[in-house]
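Entry:
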Amino acid sequence: MTPLRSLAYSAARKLLSGLPLPIATPVELVRAADGTTSRPLAFKRIALAGKGAADADLLVRHLEEAGARVEGPGDSPADVVIGFLPERAGAEDLAGLYAMLHGRVDTLHDRGRVLLMVRSGAPIVTGGVNAFVRSLARELGGRGTTVNAVVSQELELASPIVAFLASERASYVSGQTWTLHAGAIPVQVPSPGPRLAVVTGAAQGIGESIVRVLAANGYRIALLDLESQTSAGRSLCDAIGGEPAGMAFHACDVRDTEQVARVLETARAASPMGMIDLLVNNAGITRDRTFRKMTPQEWAEVHAVDLAAVVGVTRSAQPLLAPSARVVNVASVSGLAGNFGQTNYACAKGAVVGYTAQVARELEPRGIAVTAVAPGLIETAMTHAIPALQREVAAQMTSLAQIGLPQDVAMVVELLGRREAWPLRGQAVRVDGGMFFGS
């Protein structure tokens, strides 16, 4: 963020503070570097609490391998608190959340993590947990602390997800319940060389950050964007290693199915197996206006790019997807909660969430996981056009009281591209700082 823009937001926050409203001053979040590390939890002190913590050996081992120091119940300061509910949890265990976590919250360091490990899928339990984590996220967000829950009967599946949420790669993910599907992760045949990712809308904004994070994690990448973005796309390619590193920019209008098919056929040559390991449908546009004033063209343009192109690109890519490939669709919280002046965008993005669930079922037999990521208000060229006061109001509607960065979305996309994302297939993961609205 530029100093001038930061000054504008500070002025907007000061103006809002004069109103009879609770205005929070955001804590600067600590974010991980683009590349992964074998010890993302190095120097983190993790405290376990709850009745189910006694048989959490598998999870503890995973956290320790990631560099964490895991401690049992106590009152010493911690960076992360993980509370366990028993496998057959019920209403009485929800009542026990107070005793489990109340004393622990005060010992948590700023920018900490509170995680609930839930091993019961009973609606009475998941419903209560979901509302609890969203509420606690709002209370602790002013300290830069995030609160999330993971629902899974299998600790082996949950361990990498818990480790991600405990790390600085998930600094803008809060107020969510991640429900993991049961079942073993399909055996993934190791690729003989670097994996190939295809990213649409790759030259700027969230797409650019996705490209940088994937490149830092060893992917070869085909960057697709409009011809008008050729200069930016090629500069980005050069910045991440260029042709010698397997990076290539392809001018492509994702609305043109024939052009998409040709580009994908060309792009797959960068893969040793001639297959696509990760497809990220990121291209999107907005044409904001109230429904009464919206033109037919504004409605059609958004649906063509934000929905029809997602379906078209995915359909064209399906024959080229490697066994155990991953597809990540970039949706939006507007598609989950709706938004004033965005009937076209919300409709299209909501349909993307539904399409994700639908195509996930279709591709599951091939070992391919399809997921979606739903960003909230993120620092991009589109959001820069929003007046500072309006942006600050929107920021105050998040638990963390701030707007996210493209990197926050990219980190989740990278997670969803991993083998460990299999239990999340068909779901949409929010990256919104714990927005006060939305499912």
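The longest helix spans residues 296-317.
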